[in-house]
Write the structure tokens for this entry.
Amino acid sequence: MQRRTNNIDYQNFVHQTPKHNEYQVLEEIGRGSFGSVRKVIHIPTKKLMVRKDIKYGHMNSKERQQLIAECAILSQLKQENIVEFYNWDFDEQKEVLYLYMEYCSRGDLSKMIKHYKQDHKYTPEKIVWGILAQILMALYKCHYGEDLPSLVSIYDRMRPPGKGKNIVIHRDLKPGNIFLSSHDGNNESGGKATVDYSEVIVKLGDFGLAKSLETSIQFATTYVGTPYYMSPEVLMDQPYSPLSDIWSLGCVIYEICSLHPPFQAKNYTELQNKIKAGKFDRIPDYYSNGLNAIIHSMIDINLKTRPSTFELLQDIQIRTARKSLQLERFEKNLLDYEKELVNIEKLLEKQAVDYEREVHRLKEHFEIALEQGIRDAMDGKKMSKVPDSIQGYYGKTLSKPAFNWETRYQ
Ligand SMILES: Nc1ncnc2c1ncn2[C@@H]1O[C@H](COP(=O)(O)OP(=O)(O)OP(=O)(O)O)[C@@H](O)[C@H]1O
């Protein structure tokens, strides 16, 4: 395993040297445009992870830099709703870069949408709000480079974020890049075919196209993205900003409700025209006006009126969804704690029973020995068998009981 090559610029990285043989490689779970994704176990911690194998041999220097950028971005972005980047390593001979990341066992939003489509059911509204709130929490970290303050009450006024250093624009928000994980940290789906979507944690991932900008004023002008979710300003080659992620997010949430994207067309030109016009149908009547309104506010062709991540997080329904997620988490922690207490109680009860049984046994033996000793004494024999202590009788390291057996165990 070589660690240096002229083709890759490692200067942006701060990483502890990973050891290739610390990972046990398991099955492949998918393939992307750059290579395969496999499950691996980090042997020292027994942690299940994914390893993204990226062949860089055929890449030009721009693509390699993009790859490095993804790693650099991911290693900085630590937030509960962002797929965690653990480490990286590479094999220079095979020209493969290995990225070790959090494993999300519950699939992604494209699978969830497919599930509801197949079942001919709408995604429950509560689930939609929960997903929207969680993606906004992830985007807050990306767009402002800060941790989102926790919510004490739904009426809390949020302090506006700072100037935004090291902000990140995802640039490729789509259902297939939004992963789902479980609350209990048990990342094995246990062979379960069905996922309880009311209980999943949303994780924003696949930052392959993300662009890290030094400040919020500096914009990227190049775009590579998925047409269905592409914002009109990007289609018109205008500077790319965090608001373009908001447009894409609006399209993703629309699709979760309607089970199809807001703009559909037979060809690219038709799609482009529809996106630029910004006209689309209401989400099904099954959903509230509040949800419809927030989706419409995000899929707004006017950048001046399209809300930012911060503004969306102020929405009372988003705050309610956040609070509800917090309470569910709290309830889950309490239930786990209760289970732990029940187990401890059972253990203590068993120890108490074992202890009493042992004491009872010792007491009986002690009494028999004592009676025998007294009888021997009355018969005029030498009182050699009368124990001074249980230890004396059994040869055990037990001191004479310090309490009165009769009153204690009546
Ligand atoms: N962290 C992860 N946890 C679980 N599954 C993952 C994870 N990352 C990727 N996958 C799965 O691996 C497969 C390949 O993912 P990858 O992101 O490499 O490519 P893609 O998004 O399908 O395509 P593209 O490379 O064009 O973006 C997908 O099925 C994806 O769901």
Notes: The domain at 1-103 is CATH 3.30.200.20 (Phosphorylase Kinase; domain 1). Residues 1-16, 213-225, 398-403 have pLDDT under 50 and may be disordered.
